[in-house]
Amino acid sequence: MKGSFKLGLLVTIAAGSTIMMGVANSQDSLPAGVTSIKVATPYKGSPLDEIISGWHFRASETQSLQQDDFDNPGYLWVDKGESLWNTVDGEAGKSCASCHNEAAKSMKGVGAEMPKWDAKLKRPLTMEQRINSCRTNNMKAKAWKWEADQMLSMTAFVRNQSRGMPVNVQVDGPMKAWAEKGKEVYYTRVGQLDMSCANCHEANYGKHIRADHLSQGQSNGFPTYRLKWQKLGSLHRRFKGCMKNIRAVPYKRGSDEFVAMEIYLAHRGKGLQVETPAVRN
Amino acid sequence: MMKANSLIAGCAAALMTVMAGSALAEATKPDMVKIDDNKVKSSLTGIKGNAADGKKWFANRKLGNCLACHSNKDMTSKPFHGEIGPPIDGVADRHSEQELRAILVDSKTVLGKETIMPGFYKIKTGARPAKKFKGKTILSGQQVEDIIAYLLTLKE
């Protein structure tokens, strides 16, 4: 199926190659599965005049890898996630599908609203934490590690069901204190280089810092496939990388600080469409 | 007569060497450097900066890494000049040695506390400094002096 589709596509591209090239280089080109990479009129109180996906700032070779799912190396992980969705694991003898059936229906929109408040635990859960909660409580299976291949595959698969949908995370009610904590972490200067996330991603996006073209540091494409990592990686892995670069001790994956920052960052990107799995350099 | 003169000259030279040596041993400690009127008056080490070394520290990613943020026409052979700060070209026409020293030691005092530019000879850093860098300045006093010597060559 896929093979023949790809072949068909290639023929189409070959036939209309001049037109296709034109499209790929124009400003109207878009990543697969979304209709926009910008929010021109951000929510009230946004610190940004316009909200822009990280895709916009990448070189055209990197962008092109995300324009077609067949070229997107992250899609292999989505496919792996789909097979795990249907795989029985744990003492309860269940798979995700046993309870949630078809992910395309049951999980549509879920990834656009993560992290979400968990009333029982009285705290927000990220996608990773939510999945592990289902594995340990509902499947009687072992929790996956944050950066394990299975976890990356499953988070990519579930979030991919929301591709093209606008990010919209709750920041009122019980989530308010968490969003505020996240904001504080975001604006705190850390490390020997004494910088906050905002110094680069708010005050200087669109400019080059050495070879890197700075984006707004948005989270709508996560987990993302990074060419540098040669694999998919979680948002918290990226947080750690940025903190290490400014010579700070990063927080741990899944720490309350990173969960809070994930909530706040999702809010900063409110309205951006989910692009999972995005491709970055 | 001749002999006595050269003896005195010899002594003076020896004394100078000792003074320079002790200055090397005791560069002014970062928290003892005084910034007055956006200037740091005297050298951090007492030893003249070496512009050729300063040029290296300017580009070195692990040291000044100034090139990450400032483009520099004197280094066109090196790729990837940053755009975060103003081009460094002609900086010596804009700032005196003493002003440059103050900017490098503690950028925030001179450029404003919002600046992204790090202070390079300063102990107080951001929260959670990595263990390897805790309590250390980004550059040594001599490296700061070397960079200043280099910046002073950049005239337009």
Description of the molecule:
The complex is a heterodimer of chains A (281) and B (156). Chain A is built from 12 helices and 9 strands. With 281 residues, chain A is mostly helical. In chain A, the strands form 4 sheets. Chain A has a 3-stranded mixed sheet with strand order 8-7-9. Chain A has helices spanning 2-15, 17-25, 60-65, 75-85, 96-100, 103-106, 127-138, 149-160, 176-187, 197-201, 235-245, 256-268, and strands at 38-39, 51-52, 116-118, 123-125, 208-209, 212-213, 224-226, 231-233, 279-280. Chain B is mainly α. Chain B has one domain: Cytochrome Bc1 Complex, Chain D, domain 2 (Orthogonal Bundle). Chain B has 6 helices and no strands. Chain B is globular and about 35 Å long. The N and C termini of chain B lie far apart (51 Å). In chain B, 34% of the residues are buried. The interface between A and B is medium-sized, with 24 and 27 residues.
Task: Write down the overall geometry of chain B.
Answer: globular
Briefly note the CATH topology name of the largest domain in chain A. Answer: Cytochrome Bc1 Complex, Chain D, domain 2
Uncertain residue ranges of chain B = 9-23
* SSE sequence of chain B, one letter per element: HHHHHH
Percent of residues in beta strands of chain B: under 5%
Distance between the termini of chain A: 30 Å
Overall number of structural domains of chain A: 2
**Assembly state (oligomeric):** heterodimer
The count of β-strands of chain A is 9
In N-to-C order, the SSE pattern of chain A is: HHEEHHHHEEHHHHEEEEHHE
CATH class designation of the largest domain in chain A: Mainly Alpha
Shape of chain A: globular
Looking at the structure, the CATH topology of chain B is Cytochrome Bc1 Complex, Chain D, domain 2
- Biggest interface, CB < 8 A: A-B, 24 and 27 residues
The assigned CATH architecture of the largest domain in chain A is Orthogonal Bundle
Helix content of chain A: 40-55%
The CATH architecture classification of chain B is Orthogonal Bundle
In total, the number of domains of chain B comes to 1
